[in-house]
């Protein structure tokens, strides 16, 4: 399997790519939406909420946590998750700057 060769891209390109990864699977989008709707740390059963197997949910939570978009706190025997507001704001600013670019010549092709 080939390497991603991230070192040949700018820091900005790598950051945009990492943030976009959060939205690259509908399960991660569903998890983020759930966390926004409840607007507090969520300690419930995301398996029953989302409808995927526990290992699958755990993998998506791990991805979101590695991206820094969510935080997890251990409470008793469970982990409670919430959106990291600072990282979310950073992601919004980076992605909005990228997405707000205008096409200079929309009729070029």
Give a brief description:
The protein is mainly alpha-helical.
Description:
With 109 residues, the chain is mainly alpha-helical. It contains five helices and two strands. The protein has a two-stranded antiparallel ribbon. The longest helix is centred in the C-terminal third of the chain and has 15 residues. The mean pLDDT is 89.
Features:
single chain; 109 residues; mainly alpha; two-stranded antiparallel sheet; 5 helices; 2 strands; 53% helix; elongated
- Structural classification: mainly alpha
Give the averaged pLDDT, no decimals.
Answer: 89
Radius of gyration: 17 Å
Report the total helices: 5
What is the tally of beta strands? 2
Helix content: 40-55%
In whole angstroms, the N-to-C terminal distance is: 35 Å
H/E element sequence:
HHHHEEH
Low-pLDDT ranges: none
SSE blueprint and pairings:
Blueprint: H1 11-21, H2 26-38, H3 46-50, H4 54-67, E1 70-75, E2 78-83, H5 85-99
Antiparallel strand pairs: 1-2
Helix pairs in contact: 1-5
């Amino acid at each position: 399997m080939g390497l991603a060769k991230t070192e040949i891209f700018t820091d900005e390109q790598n950051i945009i790519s990492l943030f976009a990864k959060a939205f690259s699977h509908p399960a991660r989008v569903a998890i983020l939406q759930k966390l926004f709707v409840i607007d507090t740390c969520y300690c419930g059963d995301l398996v029953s909420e989302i409808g995927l197997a526990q290992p699958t949910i755990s993998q998506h939570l791990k991805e979101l946590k590695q991206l820094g978009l969510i935080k997890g706190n251990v409470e008793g025997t469970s982990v409670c998750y919430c959106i990291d507001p600072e990282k979310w704001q950073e992601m919004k600013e980076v992605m909005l700057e990228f997405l707000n670019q205008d096409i200079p010549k929309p009729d070029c092709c």
